[in-house]
Amino acid sequence: MKEFYKQLLENNKKWVETSLAKDPNYFADLAKGQQPPLLWIGCSDSRVPANEIVGAKPGEVFVHRNIANMVVHSDMNMLSVLDYAVNVLKVKHVIVCGHYGCGGVKAAMGNMSVGIIDNWIRHIKDEYRLHDKYLNSIEDETERFNAFVEINAKEQVYNLAKTSIVQGAWKNGQDLMLHGWVYGLNSGFVTDLNVTISSNDELDSVYQLDL
């Protein structure tokens, strides 16, 4: 355990040396501030690193991660990140990226208790209830699992669009596009789910806030 910890520190030193060898001003420039064009909302899964997946450098992606890439309207952590990204950093794009093989989504499909996370994945179970006829019509378990991962990512994009933060930005004429992706752990490729929202006109009228 101690050796692993020591190796982390050594890895950091090597990374700094390599970065400075490429650009002596690398960290000095980063310290001046950030203007990322993208907010990434992804899963906490260690196999889904936001920057690496899209080939982005430090300073190019503002990141929020949680179990199963959820956008829960009572989650002050997520809302704080979203508000800062939209209203201060003025990001142009928000990507919700799920991934095939997501343990949170898988747990939501079953009945086994896995601890306090039961309360978190209940939100995912609500989504299954809304799409149960379609999902239950898929006989192959893996295909049904993959389909639910995609549905979950799409639903989170719509949850983003329903927030007063995003709708306020649109009302103020801010360029802001929301997207849904799914990442393939076994391929490295992302799948664009073709759910891109850029105004609240694309929402049901009950969700369109009069701001």
Automatic annotation (TrEMBL):
Catalysed conversion reaction: hydrogencarbonate + H(+) = CO2 + H2O
Entries under InterPro entries matching the protein: Carbonic_anhydrase, Carbonic_anhydrase_CS, Carbonic_anhydrase_sf
Keywords (A to Z) from UniProt: Lyase, Metal-binding, Zinc
Sequence similarity: Belongs to the beta-class carbonic anhydrase family.
Cofactor(s) the record lists: Zn(2+)
EC numbers, comma separated: 4.2.1.1
NCBIfam families: PRK10437.1 (NF007756)
Zinc is among the record's keywords: yes
PANTHER family the UniProt entry points to: CARBONIC ANHYDRASE (PTHR11002:SF76)
SMART domains per record: Pro_CA
Organism: Flavobacterium calami
Protein name, per record: carbonic anhydrase
Enzyme class: lyase
